[in-house]
Write a structure and sequence with these properties.
Blueprint (H helix, E strand, L loop, with lengths): L2 H11 L11 H11 L5 H30 L19 H15 L13 H14 L3 H9 L2 H13 L5 H10 L5 H10 L8 H8 L15 H15 L1 H6 L24
């Protein structure tokens, strides 16, 4: 397995920090890509052009583009389990299982990042490739996440983003035809842009708590008010002639009444 290609894809999918633009790093990445036999000549050329574009953009513009593409919404999240489990509890257990897989292989995470971060997972597979000659196993690991790769590739293609070339390479390594991207595009229809300010505000907006039910029949507090009103009307005359008597006012063990939600009122 040409593990260097996986390492390059991992590097290019990660946040383009300043170190990537120092020295000959991008040039070295380009050379590794152009020598790889794991991907087609067309995809090799696409990645080479993507690397050239990164170099011409420079670190600041490349970082701004990356942030707007991957880090503002969830549609293009590079955290794998985001697309599988969302915010469910199953995501936590999946994280634990993946971390155990890393530890069993002797792969140590040296940065503060979740284990399902795609660039990190690809780096792990590149590490695995250096420890074993089992190319099939590495390809199968990538094939296991093909549904996520296809989804992300289609969404990037919908945005006409050059980053799609990296996903094309991964799909070819996994033995998938690139036609699956077009198939996914035809199925998903129009993708709502979740990176706009309005979409981000809507995503993080807290749900308004409604303390009142839709109608009086469903609202205990409203029914209580009705009963009190009826009692007051029926006993108005007696209440006018009888003094108010505060029962248990000074007793320490008086129990506070609660509302329908169980909150002391």
């Amino acid at each position: 397995m040409d593990f260097k290609l996986l390492k390059v894809i991992s590097l290019l999918l990660d946040y383009p920090d300043d170190a990537l633009f120092d020295g000959e790093h991008l040039h070295a990445c380009r050379e590794i890509v152009m020598k790889s036999v794991l991907i087609s000549p067309e995809v090799r050329q696409e990645i080479a052009e993507f690397i050239d574009e990164l170099a011409s953009l420079g670190n600041i513009d490349a970082q701004s583009r990356y942030d707007g593409l991957f880090e503002r919404g969830r549609n293009l999240s590079l955290w794998l389990f985001e697309h599988v489990h969302g915010e469910s509890r199953d995501r936590g257990q999946a994280m634990v299982d993946l971390m155990a897989q890393y530890e069993a292989a002797g792969f140590e995470i040296g940065v503060k990042e979740l284990p399902d971060y795609l660039p990190m997972y690809l780096e792990f597979l590149a590490y695995q490739a250096t420890q074993t000659d089992d190319d099939i196993a590495i390809r199968l690991e990538i094939a296991d996440i093909k549904h996520i790769l296809i989804l992300l590739a289609a969404r990037l293609a919908d945005k006409n983003s050059r980053y799609v070339c990296l996903f094309k390479a991964l799909l070819q390594i996994a033995g998938q035809p690139l036609s699956v991207i077009d198939d996914e595009l035809s199925k998903m229809g129009k993708v709502i842009d979740d990176t706009t300010p309005a979409a981000i505000d809507a995503e993080w907006e807290e749900e308004v708590v409604n303390f009142m039910a839709n109608n009086d029949e469903q609202c205990p507090s409203s029914q209580t008010a009705k009963r009190i009103s009826e009692m007051a009307g029926a006993n108005a005359q007696n209440m006018q002639t009888q003094p108010v008597h505060w029962v248990g006012f000074n007793q320490n063990n008086t129990t506070n009444p609660t509302n329908a939600k169980g909150v002391n009122v």
